[in-house]
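User: Please predict the structure of the protein below. I'd like the answer in C-alpha cell form so I can feed it into my own downstream comparison script.

Assistant: Understood. Taking the following sequence of 535 residues as input:
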Amino acid sequence: MSKVILQKPDLSYLNLSSENAFYQLEVAELVEEALKNGEGTLADSGALAIDTGKFTGRSPKDRFIVCDDVTRNAVFWGDINIEFSEEKFDALYNKVTNYLKERQQVYVRDAYACANEEFKTTIRVVTEKAFQNLFANNLFLRMEKEELGIQPEWTIIAAPGFLADPQADGTRQSNFSILNFTKKVILIGGTAYTGEIKKGIFSVLNFILPEQRKTLSMHCSANVGEDGDTAIFFGLSGTGKTTLSADPKRGLIGDDEHGWGNGTVFNFEGGCYAKCVDLTAENEPQIYHAIRFGALLENTNYFPGTRNVDFSNIDKTENTRVAYPIDYIDNAVIPSMAGVPKNIFFLTADAFGVLPPISKLNPGQAMFHFISGYTAKVAGTEAGVTEPQVTFSACFGKAFLPLHPTRYAELLGEKMKQHQVNVWLVNTGWSGGCYGVGKRMKLAYTRAMITAALKGQLEEVEFSEHPVFGLNMPVSCPDVPAEILNPRNTWSDAHNYDVKANELAAAFIQNFKQFEAYANEEMRSSLPKITEITV
C-alpha cells in the first residue's frame, strides 16, 4: 500500500516556512532522519540512542513566563515562575524562527494532550532535530489522520542550536524555555534536553486547568483495578512512585501527569519518560521491554565495542531516560482515563525513620501534606549529599506550578470531600532509626499495605494517633508485622525517636510559613505539634 502524502500546513503564521518542513513523519522515517543527520545510533534493542549534549536535565532557573494581561495577576511569581517581558519575547521569537528558516530542514508534528476529549489540548511541535520530534510523537497523544490539518491551539518551538545572547535577549544564559499564555507558544532554545518539551506543556496545563477550568492537575502516576477502582500515587524521585504504581493486576493509566475533572482521572500524555539508571528486566520488566524500535534512549552508554546499553553506566548523567508510547506497556489503559479515585497515596522516603509506614489522612492533613510534598535525600542521590536532607516540593512538583500551591491543595481537598476519597501517607523510607542506623522499609511490606488499602481491608481496623504529626496509624495490616506500624516502637531508644520526630516536625512547620498567609484553616490546623520530651 502506498503511503498517503500529507499536505504540509502553512506555517507563515508562525513566521516559519513550510518549504523546509518535514510534516508528521512516521516513526521509521524520523529514526532514518536522525541516523542520516548523525543525531544518534541504533541500540541492539532497536531503540534510537541519542545524547542531549550540554544539558542532560531541565534548567529550572532558565524557565520564564511572559508577564501580560493573562498572567500578571494570576501567576505566583518568584524563583519558580520568572517574569519575561512581552517585548523581549517577541524579539527573541523572531530570532529563533529566522534561525529555523535558515536550517536545511525542520520537523513538524501535530499532537494533543489530555486523554479526556473534554479537555483535549491540541499542540503543534516544531523541532530542529528529528529525535525531538520522535520524542513528541512518543510522549504526546497521537492524532488520527483525519484530525490533522486544523491549526492547533498551542505551539512548541524547540531550537537547541540557537543560543541566546543574555544581555540582548533578557535571558539568564544561552538556553531558555519561555511560556507565553497569550500567544499560546512555548519557545525553547539552547538545550536539546527533551524533558523541556514535556514539562512545558505540563506547566501550561497546570495553569489552564485549575485557573480556567476548575480542574485539578497532578504530578502523579495512576492505575485502575479490574473493578474500576482508580488509585493515584504522588511522590518525588526515589519514593517508589513508578515501582508501586506498576502492578500487573492493575491497568496503567499513566506514570507522571494527570488531570482530575468531571468524574474522570485522565492522562495528559500518550507515553512514558522513564529513568533508566540500573534498569534490569527483573526489577522493572515493563520499562525494560518497552525499549525497542521506536523508543528513544537519552544519554545512555553502551558496553565497549557493542550496541548493548549498560544501564549502570552514568558517566554522562544519572538522569538517563527512555521515552516510549504508552501502548508499549502491556497493561496500559487505552484511552488513558478511568473513574474518580477511591484511594490516593502520598509516597515519601523519610530517611529520619519518623513517619509511619502507612497512615490515613483527613482532608486538612491531606491538603497539608500535599502542599508540603516531603521526602528526604540520602547520601549518593546527589553530589555533596552525605547526610539525610529534608526536601519539600509543593504538590510533589513545585517546579511546574504557575499558580500558588494552595490553589492545587484546596482543589484536592474539595474533591476528597466530594467523592469521599481515602488519602494515605506511605513512608517507603527508613524504620528503626535514621538512615545509617535503621533499615529501609521492605518493598513487600509496602506493597502489602497498599494492597490492603486498595481492598478496603484497613477500613475496619483500629487506628492510633501519632503524638506529633496527628496521623492515624493502623494497629494491624494483613501480611505486615504489627510492631512496625508504629515507628516509635521500632527504635531501640524511644527518647531518640521523640527528639528526631520533633526535629522533623520543626522542618515541616518552617516550610509551611511560606504558605501560611494563603492557606485555609483546615491546612493550618493540620500542622504537626512539637511535644515536650521528658528525659
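That's the full C-alpha cell string. Confidence is low (pLDDT under 50) at residues 379-385.
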